[in-house]
Write a structure and sequence with these properties.
- With 109 residues, this protein is an alpha+beta fold.
- It has three helices and three strands.
- A three-stranded antiparallel β-sheet has the order 1-2-3, covered by helices on one side.
- A hairpin with a 5-residue loop joins strand 2 and strand 3.
- Helix 1 runs antiparallel to helix 2.
- The longest helix is centred in the middle third of the chain and has 31 residues.
- The radius of gyration is 17 Å and the shape is flat.
Amino acid sequence: MTERTRRIQEAITEASVEVTSDDHAVTVVVGPGGAVRDLHLSTRAFHHGGAELGQVVVATIRAANTRMAEELSAIMADILGAGTRPPFAPLPTPAQLRTQLDDGDGGAR
């Protein structure tokens, strides 16, 4: 196994990101691939209704996954070289795709 491959495997195995919602009601820890490793609801979470709390949880997980993708991309660029296309770039949301189509660029970037 090459040193580069070992470093990539180590980075992916150890990668972890913790994000807390703006209102401090929800904290999530995610790993690569969107794996939720931990979910903590503070007492502030109980000020939300069920549907609203669900939205906060999902938004916090999405934010953590975005940050995870950014961090892994930076690590990969460091290991493979700055000109390498990041393999962990987050996919655009349906709303972002609609905006790109509405702007007339057909989603090309």
